[in-house]
Automatic annotation (TrEMBL):
InterPro entries xref list: Ferritin-like, Ferritin-like_SF, tRNA-Hydrxlase_MiaE
CDD domains membership: MiaE (cd07910)
Name of the protein described by the UniProt record: tRNA 2-methylthio-N6-isopentenyl adenosine(37) hydroxylase MiaE
Pfam families linked: MiaE
Species for this entry: Sphingobacterium pedocola
Length: 193
């Protein structure tokens, strides 16, 4: 369904589980950044009433996920660490088209968001299927479903609001780029690392 070119090696879940405090901290900040991204899209594209409505719900949900991860961190006796730099997201941002028309930049920002949600969904599936902690595996299953919905929301808005972008062609370019990019990741206790 996601169209990702390369799936995560299930052994990545072992890396994540070996340092839960780190993966949970990284995950918390990913949720906060996802909420910020949704808010930014709203701010820059407020003329689209349905987008404002849907992305407001996503921003709230992402902050709820942030709170849930914080609660797990506290419950496990860990401490929320400082925000982590996400090199994967940085590389995706560099791939985003910023020149061209306003619509092209808008559509690429939606595809950027869809790509992150797709990979997060896939990583949460790996955690769901491989974590020994059953409660945490269930938590990641619920988030996997949520991320899949976010992915389709962003992709559907890109298709709806395109003026001068062949969204299916550009999405294929995103998938190809991400397929090459992700080969360098999967060996750290980071959601995208």
């Amino acid at each position: 369904m996601l169209g990702l070119k390369l799936l995560t090696d299930p052994r990545w879940a072992n890396i994540a589980e070996s340092n839960l405090e780190e993966i949970l901290t990284d995950h918390a900040w990913c949720e906060q950044k996802a909420a910020s991204n949704a808010i930014s899209l709203i701010t820059q594209n407020s003329e689209y009433e349905d987008l404002v409505h849907e992305l407001t719900a996503i921003a709230i949900e992402e902050m709820e996920h942030f709170r849930m991860v914080i609660d797990i961190i506290k419950e496990k006796g860990y401490t929320l660490g400082r925000e982590r730099k996400d090199d994967y997201v940085g590389q995706l941002m560099k791939f985003s088209k910023k020149d061209g028309s306003r619509n092209q930049a808008f559509i690429d920002r939606l595809l950027f968001a869809a790509m992150i949600e797709a990979r997060s969904c896939e990583r949460f599936r790996v955690l769901t299927q491989n974590l020994k902690d059953e409660a945490l595996a269930k938590f990641y299953y619920d988030l996997m479903v949520s991320e899949a919905n976010h992915y389709t929301t962003f992709l559907n808005f890109a298709r709806k609001y395109t003026i001068d972008v062949d969204v299916d062609k550009r999405w294929k370019e995103w998938l190809d780029f991400e397929g090459r990019l992700i080969q360098s990741y999967g060996n750290k206790e980071h959601i995208h690392g």
